[in-house]
Write a structure and sequence with these properties.
Layout: E1 11-12, E2 18-22, E3 29-33, E4 73-77, E5 83-87, H1 96-108, E6 115-119, H2 142-169, E7 177-179, E8 182-185, E9 190-193, H3 194-201, E10 209-210, H4 230-235, E11 250-256, E12 263-266, H5 269-273, E13 278-283, E14 287-292, H6 295-305, E15 308-310, H7 319-329, E16 335-340, H8 343-347, E17 353-361, E18 373-379, E19 382-387, H9 392-403, E20 410-414, H10 428-437, E21 444-447, H11 450-455, E22 463-471, E23 477-486, H12 489-493, H13 504-507, E24 519-526, H14 541-559, H15 564-571, H16 576-589, E25 601-612, E26 615-626, E27 631-641, H17 648-668, E28 673-674, E29 677-678, E30 696-701, H18 714-731, H19 740-746
Helix pairs in contact: 1-2, 2-3, 9-10, 14-18, 17-18
Length: about 750
C-alpha cells in the first residue's frame, strides 16, 4: 500500500538554508547555500574561487570568482543555461553524479542533460555531511542526506528565475510554467531559457518558504535516467587517480614490510639503479620505493633492489592465534547494545528448547579494480595531491601533517574512484606517498601493485559471535542472545560515535533486529587483532550481522520444524516493510516450488531478510552443490524497499553489483595470516566471481513514498545468509563459518 506523502506544508530553510545569490563575471548566476542547514559565519570580504571541476565532467563554468560565497555548496547558471551543481560527494560507481542532479533538476525544472556536476574542494568545515559529520562518501548516505536540501534549493532557484521572467514580461508569475530549463508564458507564446534571466534573477530575494512537488507530479525522480558519467567511462576519457600525469613526474613502485610494524633491513640500491629508467631508490622506516620513468621500470628496479625487512613484534601472529584470543575474550560480558526483557533469565529456564551456536567471519580484502595510488607535487611551500578518495578533507589533513604544511597549503584534486568499497575511506596511501615525495626529485606518482594492495589492505574485521535462543513448546522463540566480538572501526575512525563501549557499526543489523522476540539481549566485545589493520568494507557491520542473524533464524526455524519463510512471517507482524519485501521476494522466486534438477548436484533455496542503511530487503538464492562441495549460484531474487527511489536503474545496478560482490566473499573470500604475513597476494588466491559464475539476478523495487534509504551497501549483506541457508536446504550442512566453499570441503 502506498502512503500519501506528508509534504504539502511549506518548507522553510530560514537564514540557515539558501543564503545568497549574485551575478558572476561573464554573466549568469551563482547561488551559495548551506546544503545541510549548517550555519556558517561570514568571513568578511574574502573571495572564494569556484570549486575545481571533477575530472571527466564536461561542465560549462561561469568565469571569474564568486564574491563572498563561502558556503557549503554552490549552484551556477551560465548564459547558455547550463546548470552546474558543486557537491561534496564523490563518484565511485554508485551513481551519485546522476541521482543528485536528478534531485536538483526535479524541483528546478531543469533539463537533466544540462545539469553538470563539479567536485567540491577539500574543506571539512564547508562540505561536511550532516549524517556522517565530515566530508565523506560512505555509509550509503549520499541521497539520504541530499534528498530534501537539494530539492528545496531547486525550488527556491526556480522561484527567482520565474519571478525575473514575469517581471520582464509584466505578467503574474503564476501564469508561467517551467519545463526542461525553459520558462514559458503560454498566453503570449513567449519563452526564455534559464541563462537568459539568470542575471536578472540574481538581483531578487529568495522566498522564505517553498512548497515541494507532490511525488505524484515527479517527472525525473523515480524514473530511470542514463548515467551522466557513462559516456566518459565508455570512451575512455574519464580520468581516475591512476591516470594523473605531470611534467617530469617520476613513477614509484613500493614494497612495505610484509609484517605490520616491520622495518627495512637492507636494500640493494646499486642493482636497482642499474635498471634502465630508474631514477631513485627511496627508503622509509617500513617501506622501500623505486622511482623510474615508467611503472614497468620501477617494478623491475624494485625487484632488483630485493628489499629485506626485520619483521618485528608481529612476526608470530597467525589467524589461529587471533581467533584463539577472540574465542577467549568472547566468553566475557560485553557492552550492552540492546536489552529487552530478561533474555539471560529466560535462556536459563527449562521449558522448550535452547539452541546455541558460534559463528565466525574472516578478514576480507577490498580488492579494488583500481590499485591504490596517489600523485604528489611538493614545491614552493605547497602540496598538491591527485588521488581518488572518499575523504578529501581527511586526505588533505593527513598530507598537511606529513608535509609539515598548513592545511590551506594542501590542495586535493579528486578523481573518479575505480572501486571504493570503503578502501578509499582510508588515507594510508596518501600518507606514504607524501612521505616518499619529500625524498623524491620532482613530482611523484606512487602505485601499489595488486600484491602490495592485497597484502597491505585495511581489512574487514574478523568477527566471532556467540548466539543462544530458546524456543517454546510451540516452536516460537522467547529469548534471543547475541554477543558480537570484533575490532572497533569507529573507535579509530570516529571515536565520538562509540557510546558506552558499543561500536554502532559493529552491531548494526543485530541491535536493530526486526523480529519480535519477547526477551532480547545484544552485546559487543571489542577485540583488536595484533598485526592487522581493520577498516570499513562495503557494508561492514551488516555484512557480518545479517549473515549471523539470518543463519541463526534459519536454525530456529529448522528446530521448530517450520518452513523458514513461514517462521519469519510469524515474527515480522510488527515490521510491515520487512514482511512486504519478504513476501515479494518469495513470491517472485516461486518459494515452495521444486527446483529444476541438475544431474549429480543437490539443489536448494535459501532466504534472508534485513533492515540496514535505512532500507528493507529480502533475498532468495537458488544453489546447487556438487559431491566435492562445489557451490554454484544459479539465481538470486532480491526485493528492496529503499523508500522513494530516485533512479530505478541505479538501484538495480547496485543490487546486482552488491550481490555479486557479497557472493564472492561468502563463497571464497578470506584473508589469512601466517608468520605475521598476509598469505593472499592476488586474484589467483583471493577468488572473485567470474562472469560465467555469476547468477541471474532479479531485482524488484517496492513503490514507496517513504524517506529514501541507502542502496550502495545493502545488497552485499543479504546474499551470504541466503546462500548459506540454500546450502543447508540442499545438503543438510549448516555453515556457521565463512567462506562457504572452504567449510563444505572440510565437511
Amino acid at each position: 500500500m502506498i502512503k500519501e506523502p506528508q509534504n504539502k506544508a511549506p518548507v522553510s530553510t530560514s537564514r540557515r538554508g539558501l543564503l545568497k545569490a549574485g551575478a558572476v563575471a561573464g554573466g549568469g548566476l551563482v547561488f551559495g547555500f548551506s546544503l545541510f542547514g549548517c550555519e556558517k559565519k561570514p568571513e568578511g570580504d574574502r573571495k572564494e574561487a569556484p570549486p575545481e571541476k571533477a575530472v571527466g565532467q564536461a561542465a560549462t563554468a561561469a568565469s571569474g570568482d564568486a564574491p563572498g560565497l563561502a558556503h557549503d555548496a554552490f549552484i551556477r547558471i551560465d548564459r547558455a543555461g547550463i546548470v552546474t551543481l558543486i557537491v561534496h560527494k564523490v563518484e565511485m560507481g554508485q551513481g551519485t553524479f546522476t541521482s543528485m542532479p536528478q534531485l536538483l533538476a526535479e524541483e528546478l525544472g531543469a533539463d537533466l542533460t544540462k545539469v553538470k556536476l563539479e567536485q567540491a574542494p577539500a574543506n571539512n568545515s564547508l562540505y561536511a555531511d550532516a549524517l556522517l559529520g565530515g566530508q565523506v562518501t560512505g555509509g550509503s548516505t549520499s541521497v539520504r542526506a541530499a534528498w530534501k536540501p537539494l530539492r528545496e534549493v531547486g525550488a527556491k532557484v526556480r522561484t527567482v528565475l520565474v519571478q525575473a521572467a514575469a517581471k520582464n514580461w509584466n505578467v503574474d508569475p503564476g501564469e508561467l510554467k517551467v519545463v526542461g530549463g525553459t520558462i514559458r508564458h503560454e498566453a503570449s507564446n513567449r519563452s526564455v531559457h534559464f541563462g537568459e534571466v539568470a542575471e536578472a534573477a540574481s538581483k531578487l530575494s529568495f522566498p522564505a518558504t517553498v512548497t515541494l512537488k507532490n511525488p505524484a507530479d515527479f517527472t525525473l525522480i523515480g524514473t530511470s535516467q542514463k548515467r551522466l558519467d557513462s559516456a566518459a567511462k565508455t570512451d575512455g576519457s574519464a580520468q581516475f587517480g591512476i591516470d594523473a600525469r605531470l611534467p617530469g613526474m617520476g613513477i614509484a613502485a613500493v614494497a612495505a614490510s610484509p609484517v605490520l610494524g616491520g622495518k627495512v633491513a637492507a636494500v640493494d640500491e646499486q642493482k636497482a639503479m642499474a635498471v634502465k629508467g630508474v631514477r631513485q631508490v627511496l627508503r622509509l622506516e617500513g617501506a622501500v620505493a623505486v622511482v623510474a620513468d615508467n611503472f614497468w621500470a620501477a617494478k623491475q628496479g624494485l625487484a632488483a633492489a630485493a628489499p629485506r625487512f626485520d619483521d618485528g613484534a608481529n612476526a608470530k601472529v597467525s589467524t589461529a592465534s587471533i581467533v584463539a584470543d577472540m574465542a577467549k575474550v568472547s566468553e566475557g560480558t560485553g557492552a550492552v547494545a540492546r536489552n529487552d526483557g530478561d533474555a539471560l533469565k529466560v535462556l536459563g529456564q527449562q521449558d522448550g528448547r535452547r539452541i546455541d551456536a558460534v559463528y565466525e567471519l574472516p578478514f576480507l580484502a577490498h580488492a579494488t579494480m583500481e590499485p591504490m595510488n596517489c600523485t604528489v607535487d611538493l614545491r614552493n611551500g605547497e602540496c598538491h595531491l591527485w588521488v581518488g578518495t572518499q575523504v578529501p578533507a581527511l586526505a588533505q589533513g593527513a598530507a598537511a601533517k606529513v608535509a609539515g604544511l598548513p592545511v590551506e597549503k594542501v590542495q586535493v584534486h579528486n578523481f573518479y574512484i575505480g572501486g571504493g568499497f570503503g578502501r578509499r575511506l582510508e588515507v594510508d596511501n596518501v600518507i606514504q606517498a607524501v612521505a616518499l615525495a619529500k625524498l623524491a626529485k620532482g613530482p611523484l606518482k606512487v602505485i601499489w601493485t595488486r600484491e602490495e594492495d592485497m597484502q597491505h589492505d585495511m581489512y574487514r574485521p574478523y568477527y566471532y559471535d556467540r548466539l543462544s535462543a530458546r524456543i517454546d513448546d510451540k516452536g516460537m522463540p522467547v529469548a534471543w542472545f547475541h554477543r558480537v566480538t570484533g575490532s572497533s572501526i569507529m573507535a579509530r575512525f570516529a571515536p565520538p560515535a562509540v557510546k558506552n563501549g558499543v561500536d554502532p557499526d559493529a552491531v548494526e543489523g543485530a541491535a536493530d533486529l526486526q523480529y519480535s522476540i519477547p526477551a532480547m539481549r545484544v552485546e559487543y566485545v571489542r577485540h583488536e587483532p595484533p598485526g592487522l589493520a581493520t577498516a570499513f568494507w562495503r557494508g561492514v557491520g551488516p555484512t557480518h550481522n545479517v549473515f549471523v542473524v539470518e543463519s541463526f533464524i534459519d536454525e530456529l526455524a529448522y528446530a521448530s520444524k517450520t518452513d523458514p519463510v513461514a517462521f519469519r512471517r510469524s515474527l515480522l507482524q510488527k515490521s510491515p516493510r520487512t514482511l512486504a519485501v519478504l513476501n515479494l521476494a518469495v513470491d517472485k522466486a516461486g518459494w515452495g516450488k521444486p527446483l529444476r534438477p541438475i544431474a549429480g548436484r543437490k539443489m536448494g533455496r535459501g532466504v534472508s531478510t534485513q533492515f540496514a542503511f535505512g532500507s528493507y530487503m529480502a533475498q532468495v538464492a537458488e544453489v546447487s552443490v556438487g559431491a566435492d562441495g562445489d557451490v554454484r549460484v544459479h539465481r538470486v531474487v532480491c526485493a528492496v524497499d529503499c523508500g522513494q527511489n530516485i533512479n530505478p536503474d541505479t538501484i538495480v545496478a547496485q543490487m546486482e553489483g552488491g550481490i555479486v560482490f557479497g557472493a564472492s566473499a561468502a563463497l571464497w573470500g578470506q584473508v589469512t595470516l601466517d608468520g605475521g604475513k598476509v598469505q593472499q597476494t592476488n586474484f589467483g588466491d583471493y577468488r572473485v566471481m567470474r562472469m560465467n559464475e555469476a547468477p541471474a539476478v532479479e531485482v524488484y523495487i517496492v513503490n514507496s513514498r517513504d524517506e529514501p534509504g541507502g542502496i550502495g551497501e545493502p545488497g552485499t549483506a543479504g546474499v551470504a545468509p541466503a546462500l548459506a541457508n540454500a546450502v543447508f536446504a540442499a545438503t543438510g550442512k549448516r555453515v556457521r563459518k565463512l567462506p562457504i566453499g572452504e567449510q563444505l570441503k572440510k565437511a
